[in-house]
Amino acid sequence: MGSSHNILTRASVINSIEEVRLALAVHRRQGGRIGLVPTMGALHRGHGALIEAAARNTDLVAVSIFVNPIQFNDPGDFKQYPRTLDSDVAFCESSGARIVFAPSAKEMYPEPQKSFVDVEGVSEHLCGKFRPGHFRGVATVVLKLLQIVQPDRAYFGEKDAQQLAVIRRMVRDLNVPVEIASVPTVREVDGLALSSRNQHLTPGQRAVAPILYRALQLARERIADGVRDPEIVKREALDALRHPEVQVEYLELMDPGSIQPKERMEGSVLVAAAIWIGGTRLIDNVLWNGV
Amino acid sequence: MGSSHNILTRASVINSIEEVRLALAVHRRQGGRIGLVPTMGALHRGHGALIEAAARNTDLVAVSIFVNPIQFNDPGDFKQYPRTLDSDVAFCESSGARIVFAPSAKEMYPEPQKSFVDVEGVSEHLCGKFRPGHFRGVATVVLKLLQIVQPDRAYFGEKDAQQLAVIRRMVRDLNVPVEIASVPTVREVDGLALSSRNQHLTPGQRAVAPILYRALQLARERIADGVRDPEIVKREALDALRHPEVQVEYLELMDPGSIQPKERMEGSVLVAAAIWIGGTRLIDNVLWNGV
Asked: Which CATH number, 3.30.470.30, 3.40.50.410, 3.40.50.620, 3.30.9.10, labels domain A12-183?
């Protein structure tokens, strides 16, 4: 267990790439293992679980807070994305982080970005189909953060299953010297996956939102029951998502590593969906690990 | 001056990524600065100048030798690319390298590569126009090598001016923690730039080959003379390349950083050309640094 986990120490808030490198270099030379939790801020208990996992398994946790413009295909979504730096810093401290790296867009992109990482195959389906360029922006900024912080381990939530698959593949393909760790999705008591976007839901919409996790669970149960035709599983899950306030963007059964469609229910199956409730887009997934 | 420069020590030949990382980690922990010279083997005095520069300015020089399949758009060119590992290792030793990293294609690409780095703008013109996918392959493999070796400095030849611009931009855009150093082109006495491909020239073709550097020099002289219209400079240089054995692929006046066409002869001008003599493609460039 990292020493930072139980003792509440102040976190240093650092805005510059050069300074965060210097601060971490001192720590690295003393042999300390560094954990990175990349976030876009608006932190909640889901991020808390990532920071706590990092604090248990590394010696110094850095949380990056950066709302990355190049991963938003919709400028309105970028603009309305919640920004709550002061409370985020307090949250990082209480969760066990010692460094909060919060660069400006100018610090991360001092000139127009010309270099991009594409991770083919794994980026094509699910969110990749509906948010063109999104995973290119994610892969690129995560690679930048990995180069800046040079962590021993970086932590990502399983709620963003496709993002996790993209990053795992990128790190393997590009030989980035980092271990990618994943942390299970944190949920409200009624099953809704925690997300910074949940705060955009009206109370009425919030009451509807757990329908997503229920439908995914149903799909997993049908697979566990022995249903082997993905079309039947999908149809039943889509039926469970029927609601006047819900628009389904996708619901798919995928291989969790390659994010390619599962033709047959064998090995692991990722059941992943995106829905809209009013103007808010929610994603979630469950994993079936075979019999 | 690095200690490895004057004393002839045996170089370790390492084929595995894990082993080269371990060997370099020991050195890094002792505070030694690491220089990387990425090559495709078939080493000549041009590479020698890179290795010697690295040995002067870092404490341990690693030379990578890897004929990278994903940067060859022409499978025939990949197949006939010279492979001379034994003499390359001896050459590395005598030039001051201590580690030769010579991985197999299977070691570098154990599964089909899905992650690629694109460097936009700078990859579009010159060789990028005639070798589709070439710079994507170059950027991707260089990023991989930088992640594996994690050098303090990496050395590239100015003969490959566009490659140098692509790598500089990639390193800046992706915050890769390495310094990119460039080394002037090494030439034969008659001006022909050293290249592994020169060995494919017949004696008759070899006698013709210096026409390329002469034409580039002529262009630079015309700019220095005060000619400000790039079309006039190009026309005169193209006239100088007229020869029954020579086919010109391109001759362009570019900004050396952005590799975009120069509209006016101000600031630095890169005069770059590619020609074919028989089945052999030769590239070269000269830089005009303004008045």
From this structure: 3.40.50.620
